[in-house]
Amino acid sequence: MRNAKLSKAFLLLLLIFLLVYPFIFTNPFPRHLMIMIFLFGLTGTAWNIIGGYAGQVSLGHSMFFGMGAYTSTLLNEWYNLTPWLGIWTGAIVAVILAVIVGWPCFKLGGHYFAIATICISEVIHIVFLNWEKVGGAVGIYMQIREESLYNLQSISKIPYYYVIFAFLVAAILVTYILERSKVGYYLRAIKAEPDAARSLGVSITRYKMIAMVISAFFTAMAGTFYAQYVLYISPNNALLLMTSFQIALIAILGGTGTLFGPILGAFVLIPISEFSRVYMGGGGRGIDLIVYGALIMVIAAIQPSGLMGIIKGKYNNNELALDKGE
To answer: β-strand 140-141 against 232-233: which pairing, if any?
Structure first.
């Protein structure tokens, strides 16, 4: 009981800290760093729904990220529509793509599914590289519009901070509800014992599709936000295969199948990436990937359940010690 109360108090204090963070750290880089942590925390949380709860390791989530980015950007540039409409449209396009991709690919198991998602993602990447109408390899530079929340453009990083924070909170709440719903129990059963779940009448393809659709929806929202934040998209930043790997690694390091694992993974990995990029420049390119790989190997050797597994292990040990009166 004491540990549970402490955990709730810690989460409350953390929430308050995150809400006032941009007023404590007023320089652009600390704000940018937290925005990127929220952004990839969102993508990691989205990936965790299909990869962590359903057990389907997707390595092609950049296609959903890119669909959100391109759809919202093209609607904004061609038809002058607000990015807020583009967010929903991009998410719907990503959901349709998820159904098209998921229906045949869910017939594949294990690493074959992962390979299939990589192949489809790369095909989409190549198509956009050669599609001149949407900018081709050069990409699209977005217009600088009047500074307003309606246009989702601002000189200050504070509006971006709170928008992506709200998206992340929404994704966490959906995951929390899903985790405790009938669908969540079915997904965990499918991951653990698919044959047993099937024998009990659970439609494996249907529930995996539900997980894929929700995952694609939130990943596309992240892609839309990213496009508005940097005001430039191209196949090499919105549809890059390395983005898919980064999304998956964040969830795996933090702990798949857990509510806060992807957030924890983002808080560890994104600062490494951003600091190596900013402070080491071109000479530091790839350093973050080396550190990523090393961390994954260490965590896999010590605790395959990720960082959340380590935290839960210590939490359970503390509770056991309290029960024994130590």
So the answer is: antiparallel
CATH number of the domain at 57, please.
1.10.3470
Give me the pLDDT at residue 13, please. Answer: 94
Cβ proximity of 175 and 259 under 8 Å: yes
Could you tell me if residue 21 is inside a domain?
no
19 occurs within a structural domain: no
Write out the residue range of the structural domain in which residue 125 sits. Answer: 2-7+28-323
DSSP letter string, 249-274: HHHHHH-TTSSSHHHHHHHHHHHHHH
Q: What is the DSSP letter of 142?
A: P
pLDDT at 94 over 50: yes
- Is there a domain that residue 312 lies in? yes
pTM across the whole model: 0.92
User: Of the candidates 226, 306, 317, which has an alpha carbon nearest to the alpha carbon of residue 38?
Assistant: 226
The per-type count for the chain, helices as H runs and strands as E runs, is 14, 2
In this prediction, residue 39 carries a pLDDT of: 97
By CB atoms closer than 10 A (0-12, 13-18, 19+), residue 98 is buried
State how far the Cα of 96 lies from the Cα of 206, in Å rounded to an integer.
15
Work out the average pLDDT over 32-45: 97
Model confidence at 310, pLDDT cuts 50, 70, 90, reads confident
CB 246 within 8 A of CB 40: yes
Which residues, at least 6 apart from 265, have a Cβ–Cβ distance to it below 8 Å?
Answer: 41, 44, 249, 250, 251, 252, 253, 254, 255, 306, 307
Number of domains in the chain: 1
CA distance 22 to 326: 42
Where residue 281 falls among pLDDT bands split at 50, 70, 90? low
Residue 23 lies in a domain: no
Give the pair of three-digit tokens for residue 314: 């210590």
Lowest-confidence range among 3-7, 76-80, 121-125, 200-204? 3-7
